[in-house]
């Protein structure tokens, strides 16, 4: 154990400078992260932290052991290596594996600083924290773990019942209203489902004769029908956990009926629901957040040479593996989209300036503009781009009012040189310290990077026309040189930060996955085809690609299910509806969840959904002709009474309520849409 502590202390000492300088560089680039505490952990501790979702303490449950074993095998068999884990907290806590190389540690640190900036500034993360309170997720989760552990250790409570109850709640952990802020109290209360009067009469020991005389079955039926109509929820309730907390019961096998939840059950449900809301933002922004971190990591490690000469090859190799992972890769997709946004914004800024040059219009733009000359003029000032210890005098020659120069740091360097003292700044290692944010924006201007040459030329006439439509001072400059001297080099970064503040993955993809991006990046949509019995490319059209991706990220990629009635058929049964968007439920998994849900409601559960049915004759014809058969969509109601399942046809009115036309991906809170 002592040797382990010595190793951790040695690694921590080695990383003090990279941690300090990465934080300073992130701020110089315009990032504004939470403070980050870094912790050095060994291989086994890292796997435990990953299993616990990035925290050191969670409630006792078998899921953590399963996650730990999966992560250990993933690493053991070369299917993925754990480099870091960072949690959304203020301050954030990041864990570095001590066995990783220095190149990997530096990459992780730059990656973490960008994640922490995203946590601190994205509005979806801000929806969880209480007004005026500091976020302290670690303390919250530790308190939950302690409370649930005490219930499991309580001799008056069956530990197996606690685990069974947790299992049931976890089946529904994503069935919350993630587009609304988490509130501990004050949740909207929908209409209560009425109690069937027959149940009350059964408990009153009224004789059958009196009951027949006073309460006729016809009158009871009419009353039940009227009350049922009143009880239907005005709007489906997406937060199923909150609904169950207010109205749910548990089935008591001894009493053979539903009974009130025990206090410990209500407490556990409250805690797990709170955790669901805490982790929701991470699930909603996976592409944005990982792409954001990958973008700034790449800029700091590669373009700003945070990776030393002897470290760069190792870093580049590992990053290429991360970005080159097969399947839908959130790092790659996110980074590509952020770069596209930066380039598009910068291109629009360049085009805006060029359209104000005398003689240049949106109609003749591609003929009049010398794009090679434009590329030369966009290049950063050689002095800004080539800062070294032997070029400091060139920096001084830029003059005392140049907004790109950090004169406070420059004065310290010059003062040390005049006094023949060691420079307080290693200019060769950290040239960025002599620059301001404006200088950094010019130094890293995206349109002059080799991979982006030609991006300005590819601007479409339709975009040029839109830019010129409301342009009044369209002859502001006499020459292209004069126009580009007025360029705002920070436009792309500023736009990226604006988007980082308000979007989630669904709105991010909906807004910025354009035809140009899909075509240039070679994205395509694929589906399982019944005619061939395998997966095939079905479209390269950007609208199809966008729809496919949006469906994968809406509601964390899980089916959207909501409560439609808490007193269905006037029998106290729960009616859920799968908000169908063209993708069928996995009925095996759905039935498993319904069985667990029964434990939280205590009475029969009904689940409405829509299935695709295929005529065998049509399917055979489609196979012969090499095309897809047209399915018939039919509404179904799956009912579970605690023992068995029944499947019923769903009436047209309810089928229409759960069927989607055009899927609504605009999931921003209402007050953001003004």
UniProtKB/TrEMBL annotation:
Signal peptide: none
Entry coiled-coil feature ranges: none
Tree of life domain: Archaea
Domain SpoVR protein-like N-terminal: start-end pairs: 12-352, 491-556
Residue span(s) of domain SpoVR-like C-terminal: 559-610
Family matches, as InterPro entries: Spore_V_R, SpoVR-like_C, SpoVR_N
TM region positions: none
PANTHER family in alphabetical order: STAGE V SPORULATION PROTEIN R (PTHR30029:SF2)
Name of this protein: Stage V sporulation protein R
Species of the source: Halogranum rubrum
């Amino acid at each position: 154990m002592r040797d382990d502590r010595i190793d951790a202390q040695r690694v921590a000492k080695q990383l003090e400078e990279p941690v300090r300088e990465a934080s300073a560089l992130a701020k110089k680039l315009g990032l504004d992260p939470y403070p980050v505490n870094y912790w050095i952990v060994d291989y086994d501790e890292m796997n435990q932290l990953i299993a616990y979702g990035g925290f050191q303490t969670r409630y006792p449950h078998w899921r953590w052991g399963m996650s730990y074993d999966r992560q250990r095998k993933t690493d053991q068999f070369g299917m993925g290596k754990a480099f870091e884990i960072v949690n959304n907290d203020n301050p954030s806590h990041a864990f570095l594996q001590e066995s990783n190389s220095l190149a990997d540690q530096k990459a992780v640190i730059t990656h973490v600083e960008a994640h922490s900036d995203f946590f601190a500034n994205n509005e979806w993360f801000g929806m969880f924290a209480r007004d005026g309170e500091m976020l302290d997720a670690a303390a919250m989760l530790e308190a939950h773990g302690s409370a649930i552990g005490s219930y499991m250790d309580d001799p008056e409570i069956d530990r197996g019942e606690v685990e069974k109850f947790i299992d049931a709640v976890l089946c529904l952990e994503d069935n919350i209203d993630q587009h609304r802020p988490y509130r501990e109290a004050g949740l909207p209360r929908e209409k209560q489902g009425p109690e069937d009067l027959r149940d009350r009469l059964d408990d009153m020991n009224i004789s059958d004769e009196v009951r027949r005389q006073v309460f006729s079955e016809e009158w009871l039926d009419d009353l039940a029908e009227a009350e049922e109509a009143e009880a239907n929820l005005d709007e489906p309730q997406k937060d199923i956990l909150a609904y169950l907390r207010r109205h749910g019961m548990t089935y008591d096998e001894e009493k053979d009926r539903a009974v009130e939840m025990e206090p410990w059950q209500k407490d556990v449900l409250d805690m797990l629901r709170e955790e669901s809301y805490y982790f929701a933002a991470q699930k909603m922004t996976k592409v944005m957040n990982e792409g954001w971190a990958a973008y700034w990591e790449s800029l700091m490690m590669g373009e700003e040479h945070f990776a030393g000469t002897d470290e760069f090859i190792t870093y580049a190799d590992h990053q290429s593996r991360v970005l080159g992972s097969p399947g839908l890769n959130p790092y790659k997709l996110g980074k590509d989209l952020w770069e596209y946004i930066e380039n598009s914004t910068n291109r629009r800024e360049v085009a805006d300036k060029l359209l104000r040059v005398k003689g240049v219009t949106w109609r003749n733009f591609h003929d009049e503009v010398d794009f090679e000359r434009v590329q030369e003029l966009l290049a950063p000032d050689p002095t800004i781009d080539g800062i070294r210890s032997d070029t400091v005098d060139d920096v001084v020659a830029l003059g005392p009012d140049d907004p790109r120069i950090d004169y406070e740091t420059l004065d310290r360097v010059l003062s040390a040189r005049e006094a023949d003292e060691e420079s307080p700044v290693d200019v060769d290692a950290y040239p960025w310290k002599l620059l301001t944010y404006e200088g950094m924006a010019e130094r890293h201007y995206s349109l002059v990077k080799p991979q982006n040459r030609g991006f300005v030329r590819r601007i479409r006439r339709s975009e040029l026309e839109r830019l010129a439509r409301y342009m009044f001072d369209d002859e502001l400059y006499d020459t292209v040189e004069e126009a580009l001297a007025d360029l705002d080099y920070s436009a792309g970064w500023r736009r990226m930060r604006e988007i980082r503040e308000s979007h989630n993955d669904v709105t991010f993809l909906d807004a910025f996955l354009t035809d140009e991006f899909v075509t240039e990046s070679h994205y395509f949509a694929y589906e399982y085809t019944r005619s061939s019995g395998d997966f095939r490319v079905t479209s390269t059209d950007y609208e199809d690609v966008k729809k496919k991706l949006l469906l994968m990220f809406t509601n964390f990629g899980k089916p959207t299910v909501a409560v439609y009635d808490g007193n269905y058929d006037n029998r106290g049964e729960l009616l859920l509806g799968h908000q169908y968007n063209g993708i069928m439920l996995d009925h095996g998994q759905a039935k498993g969840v319904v069985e667990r849900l029964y434990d939280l409601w205590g009475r029969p559960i009904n689940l409405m959904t829509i299935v695709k049915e295929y005529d065998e004759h049509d399917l055979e014809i489609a196979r012969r002709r090499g095309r897809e058969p047209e399915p018939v969509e039919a509404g179904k109601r799956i009912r579970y009474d605690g023992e068995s399942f029944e499947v019923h046809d769903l009436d047209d009115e309810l089928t229409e309520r759960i069927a989607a036309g055009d899927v609504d991906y605009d999931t921003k809170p209402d007050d953001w849409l003004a």
